[in-house]
Design goal:
By secondary structure, the chain is an alpha/beta fold. The chain has four domains: 9-145, Alpha-D-Glucose-1,6-Bisphosphate, Chain A, domain 3, CATH 3.40.120; 150-253, 3-Layer(aba) Sandwich (Alpha-D-Glucose-1,6-Bisphosphate, Chain A, domain 3); 255-338, Alpha-D-Glucose-1,6-Bisphosphate, subunit A, domain 3 (Alpha-D-Glucose-1,6-Bisphosphate, Chain A, domain 3, 3-Layer(aba) Sandwich); 366-453, 2-Layer Sandwich (TATA-Binding Protein). The protein contains 15 helices and 21 strands. The strands form five sheets. Strands 1-5-4-2-3-6 form a six-stranded mixed β-sheet, with helices on both faces. A five-stranded mixed β-sheet has the order 8-7-9-10-11, with helices on both faces. The chain has a five-stranded antiparallel β-sheet with strand order 17-21-20-19-18, covered by helices on one side. α7 links the parallel β7 and β8 (194-197). α3 crosses α5 (147-158) and α9 (255-266) packs parallel to α10 (281-290). The chain is globular and about 70 Å long. The protein binds magnesium ion (MG). Magnesium ion (MG) binds at residues 94-95, 237, 239, 241-242. Residues 94-95, 237, 239, 241-242 line the site of magnesium ion.
Amino acid sequence: MKVFGSSGTRGVANEELTPEFVLRVAKAAGTAWGADRVAVARDTRYTGRMLADAAASGLASTGTDVDRLGIIPTPGAQAYAEREEMPTIVITASHNPPQYNGVKLVGSDGVELAVADLETVEQTLLAEGFETAPWDRTGRVREIDGVRRAYVDELLAHADRERIADAELTVALDPGHGAGSLTSPAFFRALGCRVITVNGQADGHFPGRDPEPVPSNLADLGRLVRATDTDLGIAHDGDADRAIFFDESGEYVEGDAALAALAAAELEAGDTTVSAVNVSQRLVDVATDAGAELELTPIGSTNIITRIEELEANGQRVPVAGEGNGGIFFPEFRLARDGAYTAARFLELVAERPASELVEPYGGYANVRKNIHYESTADRDAMLDAAANHAHSSEAELNTRDGYRLDHGDAWVLARPSGTEPLVRIYAEARDEARAQTLADDMHEAMADAAAGN
Ligand code: MG
């Protein structure tokens, strides 16, 4: 796919991602979908209104009626799409910096469009084979009220409200000025939590922090947790499909540790869980202990979604899946990442024991990363061949879905070319720092020799 990458189309608004482009994407989607009605939603970004207007115009020109949802978390837009059985265009750049924006396409089942469906839209876009309605058949646009309230109500219906409320928890919430600012405070209050917020006003300039929920952007939340009697700190990204946590002492909880804790509570023998090839040893250990299968896909949420759909079609139970960036799926709820829902599932666990105890078994893993630069594609190919030879000569279990991942049972190493830079990245993880270092060094040595010998 040229236009739609693994996370839709993103770019700096009005430079790379223009209203003209969004208009054309919407005309292509309206044509390819052929639906009577399509919804348009957005996050809080300053350019969101401008681009959502372009999307609505494009859809209407193909004769499609448009439901304008306004600002809502991406998972809230997905809930609307599923409830109303209506494809949806979401204007969001998720965790990217404020100047970015993007387009995400959601099917009438509430699930992000699969690669094959994106390709259909893309072909329509590139061929400019747009449906054009006569003037009196162009779509009508209507504003829909109460969509955020309906989303919160739906979340409440699927969370264990009693268990959370009984624990009388205090939550420190940092929605980062994003779409979750307008839904998550009400949701956690309705769950019976006391809620204090930082960066809590919806603001498309993101004055308090950038939308990506990484530790360097979350110092204020850590301080807020430490300064108050808080049970859990929760941070979202710009469109609130991710949740990142701080424990009750203000310590940042690594996304991999939170995923492992949630998976440990969810997985039963015979289940399958799905993650990407850079998955932490923590989830490997949790799946092994539970007697569950762990399936690894190429990096990117579209790949995880596709694999879950395949497994479920085969009758496999996939109760939990996702990546260590706070993007977690509970497919029995919805095949969508939902930061508020993920946080509610975590609060159900925090109701039983402190967050620090909950994630304690998943601390103490050592990660090593190394990069090898290459000059030419010949160099790169020689290095990857060497990685393959190194993998095949090893006793470890090999996964080649995206680079070369060697699973040793207690530890793993992955060599994978960067998608954006002339680098092959090496990742290794083990309980023991020295073991992770040795695995990364061995891979590095095998590949460096190949590059030198080329
Ligand atoms: Mg996001």
